[in-house]
Amino acid sequence: MTDTAAAHTKANANANANACAGATAAGGQDAEPRARFRDLVAAEWTKWWSLRSSGWALAATALAVVGFNVGMAYDTYRYWSERDTASRADFVRDGIPLSIAFSTDAAMLLMLALSSIGATVIVGEYRTGLIRTTFAAVPARRSVLAAKVCVVAAVTTVFGAVVSVASFGLTQAVLSGRDAGVALDHPGALRLVVASALLAPVSALVGLALGAVLRHSAATMTANVVVLLLLPLIFSADRHWAAVIDHALPAGAWNRLTAVGHQPVAHPWTAGGAWTVYAVWAVAAAVVAVASVQRRDQ
Amino acid sequence: MIEVNELTKRYGGTTAVDGLSFTVRPGHVTGFLGPNGAGKSTTLRIVLGLNDPTGGSVTVDGRRFRDRPRGLRHVGALLDAHDVHGGRTARTHLYVLARSNRIPRRRADEVLEEVGLAGASRRRISGFSLGMKQRLGIAAALLGDPPVLLFDEPLNGLDPEGVTWLRGLLRRLAGEGRTVLVSSHLMSEMENTVDHLVVIGRGSLIAAESLAGFAARGTRPSVTVRTPDLTAFTELLTGEGARVLQQGPDTLTVTGLDADRIGELALRHRVLLHELTARNASLEEAFMELTADSVGHVAGADR
What we know:
- Chain B: This is ABC transporter.
- Chain B: Belongs to the ABC transporter superfamily.
- Chain B: InterPro entries: AAA+_ATPase, ABC_transporter-like_ATP-bd, ABC_transporter-like_CS, P-loop_NTPase.
- Chain B: Residues 2-227 form the ABC transporter domain.
- The complex is a heterodimer of chains A (298) and B (303).
- By secondary structure, chain A is mainly alpha-helical.
- Chain A is 75% helix and 0% strand.
- The radius of gyration of chain A is 24 Å and the shape is elongated.
- Chain B has 2 domains: 2-215, Rossmann fold (3-Layer(aba) Sandwich), CATH 3.40.50; 222-280, Alpha-Beta Plaits (2-Layer Sandwich), CATH 3.30.70.
- In chain B, 33% of the residues lie in helices and 26% in strands.
């Protein structure tokens, strides 16, 4: 990244300094190794996992999301006998097993929790004052934030994958007790699993970006709720202009990617468009997070 | 070497630092003094590139600190002992800092040993006293074996043993040829520690000189004299151009003549002296006098 260029300049400066002045009296600055981005990633990785709350927050979120979905599947299983024959017959054809595999409520919960977890990575440093210690040790602030982006993206992608696959597997296992489960090769199933998994890093990066800009916990959490949960509620998809905004939001994209089959929608759009929305949010959030620390006082 | 040039920092309408220039040289412990709100911490933050100056510049060993990709091998700093995350252990805190600067882990263990925290290294920082946090901050500053060290009020919260230890450490670091800048708002803390002083008030420079030079600029030295022959001796001293103040039934404070000259006068005029003591102006007095005009918050001043 930007580090490489900076490191070259540094190496030249050191070479010049050595040539002019020979060895310096105190300090080991002559022996300074080249600055590497991966050391920052390793440091951020250790920072993340050395706080007990990080692990607990992920575990609790995973339990809640998977529990939500499995609970819904269990309800269907339990009240199966109350459905009439036609409803049972159309159950799989209408794609209902997929809407149970990862429910809208579970997705909202996932967005809320992951955006908080992402925000904590930076807001926690501002709250404790650690950010000043961090930036005094690494004056290349943008590199620090880029390292945070990498760690957050990696951890939450794996987390999202585990939660999404577990939700799908467990809900379908429960439904198959009524012969109503589907496999991963069912039309739309894989897309649902991937879209739900990637909702985790997208939300976490949005949280990280808002946290880097706002720096305060309460303000960041409020902004997370507004951007990820409230806006999709306000801009429902019946009018064209509102639909355009809805489709540009992560929640709208998730809805599009997990929508099952043939419900008619007022303003249809492509799955490719929805994937693009995911990508744009993730990249934009990363850019905002990295850029936000450069000019402001810390 | 730290060079501060015409540094100015404004926050909205308030000017925290106002055209400040001074140089901190290697091989000495330099005290950075000023009353509360004088702009010491703001200046240190600008040195570390955490805040951008409104005007002017600061270089550390010839370069802007912000332009270095990694900092610990260039400047070690303790700004605020609370700038840590309480949820991590002392050693993890240092491992993270060390890793980010490509410093081996064993160096973190070494500095923990050096500051006397080896026994508490696996404990979470939230359980640390202020003194222990100061020691941890000092350990972090030492991690990169840097040629320049900045400490903002490092004596806060240290016990007497800790104060003695830190003074020894500061002197040793300076003795190794490093640049050491230590801030404080108490002159008494600095008196036995520093060789040079940079004194600021309301963001402007008041003095930048050696400790002895600074003391000489304050209250002039005086001599305490005890004699049963009070009236006669007072007349004699006044006749020689001294200012004499009667302090007790047999005690005088004399300024304008040194102790040698007073003793000589007493001998020549056969005046019995019970005491003849030269008193140097205390640094504390000099400090109070020079910063009196620039104290931001005087108790009861607003009434």
